[in-house]
Q: What sequence folds into this?
């Protein structure tokens, strides 16, 4: 019998009590989050008592009840892309309500474009506001924990997380408050450099942390110091947490999704095997690309099948080889979605095979079809390639979500608008094909701390104007390029789609 199972069954082993909290607002409508479920599964497997308080799901459920037109029918897109219209309305309402309670603008709440003292003052105001009135009651309903873990995935959760940290400190003055999540990892260098981040937070964990989480709970249960990967703010150095991809996530309270399509998250790799996009933070947040055991993902497939649900793979980039493996292992037991990139390997035969295996949605990062923008982004994809994949997806009946960006430095806005208009025209024409369902997700380029563009702005035609301590986004303007960009090669010549 392995050591972990022995320990979990030993009633004399010291056990820690931990509470994991997910603050609002994340637009994950029809299922639980993967990261917290992995931590819950890891802690319980090691014999600790771990409870999840998903305030995000509760907030979304309350908004669902208020929505005038709740969509119960199954949409074309699986995963995070099948969001009914009320979710965007609720997001806007959430930012407005938090802004009013904290004395800020909705944009400041969403992006945290504030200095330290303003953020902490706003968090104090939010904790004392009518908006946060349910939170103390929900905390009181929990058994007293020794560790309170709070997951922070992006800047828009920071104020809620700080307010919850303040309320948890008042409720349990001796509990250790620990933050983790993608946003925390993106700010690792800043947190390690400045003690002020620790005013309401005792410790921080950076990166995937299933193994470190268990080591922390072991230490707390035994009265020992936390492992070195559990860092204090301002301690000057930090270590990336230790992961454990063998953990089977613990998905609690699935009954809350009864009557709507349950979507379970899964992952078979971490990091991005492409890893060259200059605007992307995945290499900094997720570290180098590596494979995970497939068994935990197949557990999610089995659970989704048993509950009539679907599976959404959260890998930042699934290679064609991994897509093929998933198709073989899932074999049509559930419908599923995944993220990948445009590739000549996504041809008619492969997409037909994926569709037959249950693949219903693919998210593809196109980013831009302007040649100048592709040079800046270090991501070349030709118009003919895009068109070929679109047509193959139409034939296979796979829905596509296409990510596109505007505002690359050194690219004329008129050129971007012309190229985007060509793409939209092509999509409209292809939508006449019976099987093509596509959605163009359009965003403006943001320069973030952990990206290559954010770390070496002058090399990518960017000048940073302002940074904010709790935000990963930086204010910027175009600037002369300090270093010649490496030319990209893409088949098909011009980025324009052929007429």
A:
């Amino acid at each position: 019998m392995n050591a972990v199972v022995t320990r979990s069954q030993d009633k004399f082993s010291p056990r820690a009590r931990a509470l994991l909290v997910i603050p609002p607002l994340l637009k994950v409508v029809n299922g639980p989050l993967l990261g917290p479920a992995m931590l819950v599964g890891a802690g319980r497997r090691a014999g600790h008592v771990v409870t999840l308080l998903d305030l995000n799901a509760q907030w979304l459920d309350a908004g669902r009840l208020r929505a005038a037109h709740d969509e119960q029918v199954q949409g074309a897109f699986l995963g995070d892309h099948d969001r009914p219209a009320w979710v965007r309305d609720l997001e806007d309402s959430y930012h407005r309500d938090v802004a009013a309670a904290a004395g800020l603008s909705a944009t400041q709440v969403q992006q945290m474009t504030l200095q330290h003292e303003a953020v902490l003052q706003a968090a104090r105001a939010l904790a004392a506001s009518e908006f946060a009135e349910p939170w103390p009651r929900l905390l009181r309903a929990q058994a007293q924990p020794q560790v309170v873990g709070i997951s922070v995935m992006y800047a828009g959760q920071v104020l809620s997380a700080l307010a919850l940290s303040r309320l948890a400190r008042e409720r349990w003055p001796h509990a250790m408050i620990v933050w983790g999540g993608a946003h925390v990892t993106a700010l690792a260098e800043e947190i390690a450099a400045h003690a002020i981040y620790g005013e309401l937070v005792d410790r921080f964990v950076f990166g995937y942390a299933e193994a470190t989480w268990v080591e922390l709970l072991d230490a707390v249960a035994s009265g020992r110091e936390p492992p070195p990967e559990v860092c204090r703010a301002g301690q000057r150095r930090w270590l990336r947490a230790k992961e454990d991809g063998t953990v089977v996530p613990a998905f609690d309270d699935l009954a809350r999704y009864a009557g709507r399509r349950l979507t379970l998250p899964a992952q078979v790799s971490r990091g991005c095997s492409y890893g060259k996009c200059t605007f992307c933070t995945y290499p900094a947040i997720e570290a180098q690309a590596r494979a995970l055991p497939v068994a935990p993902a197949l557990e999610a497939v089995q659970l989704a099948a048993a509950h009539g649900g679907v599976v959404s793979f959260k890998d930042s980039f699934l290679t064609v080889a991994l897509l093929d493996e998933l198709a073989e292992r899932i074999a049509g037991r559930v419908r599923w979605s995944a993220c990948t990139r445009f590739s000549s390997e996504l041809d008619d035969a492969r997409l037909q095979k994926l569709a037959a295996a249950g693949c219903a949605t693919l998210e593809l990062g196109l980013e831009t079809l302007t040649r100048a923008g592709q040079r800046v982004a270090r991501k070349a994809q030709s118009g003919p390639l895009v068109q070929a994949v679109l047509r193959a997806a139409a034939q296979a009946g796979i829905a596509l979500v296409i990510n596109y960006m505007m505002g690359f430095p050194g690219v004329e806005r008129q050129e971007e608008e012309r190229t985007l208009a060509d793409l939209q025209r092509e999509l409209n024409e292809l939508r006449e094909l019976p099987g093509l369902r596509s959605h163009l997700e359009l965003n403006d380029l943001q320069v973030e701390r952990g990206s290559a563009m954010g770390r070496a702005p002058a090399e990518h035609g960017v000048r940073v104007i302002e940074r904010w301590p709790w935000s990963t986004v930086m204010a910027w303007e175009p600037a002369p390029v300090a270093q010649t960009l490496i030319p990209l090669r893409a088949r098909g010549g011009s980025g324009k789609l052929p007429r």
Notes: The longest strand covers residues 359-367. Residues 1-9, 68-74, 489-499 have pLDDT under 50 and may be disordered. The first helix runs from residue 3 to 9. The radius of gyration is 23 Å.
